[in-house]
């Protein structure tokens, strides 16, 4: 099975839930386990929140775009903003690093995304925005695992 979608929305914090739910609905045909759904929703949430808070400084006007492709049992997804960009991507991906300590941001977003995905990459350019790309493979659910 192959499927593809694009979703764009205004960069406001309320739309993080919209993105998370829309993407969860999109992967439903893969028959994911509850654990896989939870991990996937967390990745989406972290990537979208970063775009809203860090990319656009929560400006409430700019757009975040998600593009996702299902190919067999693998999802490839990008979350893109056209915001301020990341000055040092490598540093931003270090655990506990945050540019928003006053907002009580933990600095664990990229670490969490990496741990729940099969691969994660971040491309960013100052003044031009950031693209977070990840892949996640879903295990086929067997009848035996359904009955547990």
UniProtKB/TrEMBL annotation:
It catalyses: L-seryl-[protein] + ATP = O-phospho-L-seryl-[protein] + ADP + H(+); L-threonyl-[protein] + ATP = O-phospho-L-threonyl-[protein] + ADP + H(+). One of its GO terms (molecular function) is protein serine/threonine kinase activity. This is Anti-sigma F factor. It is an enzyme of class 2 (transferase). Belongs to the anti-sigma-factor family. Its EC number is 2.7.11.1. Signal peptide: none annotated. Binds to sigma F and blocks its ability to form an RNA polymerase holoenzyme (E-sigma F). Phosphorylates SpoIIAA on a serine residue. This phosphorylation may enable SpoIIAA to act as an anti-anti-sigma factor that counteracts SpoIIAB and thus releases sigma F from inhibition. SMART domains: HATPase_c (SM00387). InterPro entries: Anti-sigma-factor_SerPK, Anti-sigma_F, HATPase_C_sf, HATPase_dom. Keywords: ATP-binding, Kinase, Nucleotide-binding, Serine/threonine-protein kinase, Sporulation, Transferase. Residues 35-140 form the Histidine kinase/HSP90-like ATPase domain. Pfam families: HATPase_c_2 (PF13581).
């Amino acid at each position: 099975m192959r499927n593809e979608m694009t979703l764009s929305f205004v960069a406001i914090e309320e739309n993080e839930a919209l993105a998370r739910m829309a993407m969860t609905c999109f992967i439903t045909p893969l028959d994911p386990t509850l654990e896989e759904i939870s991990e996937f929703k967390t990745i989406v949430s972290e990537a979208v929140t970063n775009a809203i808070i860090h990319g656009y400084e929560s400006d409430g006007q700019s757009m975040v775009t998600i593009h996702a492709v299902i190919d067999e049992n693998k999802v490839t997804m990008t979350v893109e903003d056209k915001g301020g960009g990341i000055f040092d991507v490598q540093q931003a991906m270090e655990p506990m690093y945050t540019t928003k300590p006053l907002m009580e941001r933990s600095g664990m977003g990229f670490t969490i995304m990496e741990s729940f995905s099969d691969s994660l990459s971040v491309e960013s350019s100052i003044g031009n925005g950031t693209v977070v790309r990840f892949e996640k493979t879903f295990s086929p659910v067997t009848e035996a695992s359904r009955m547990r």
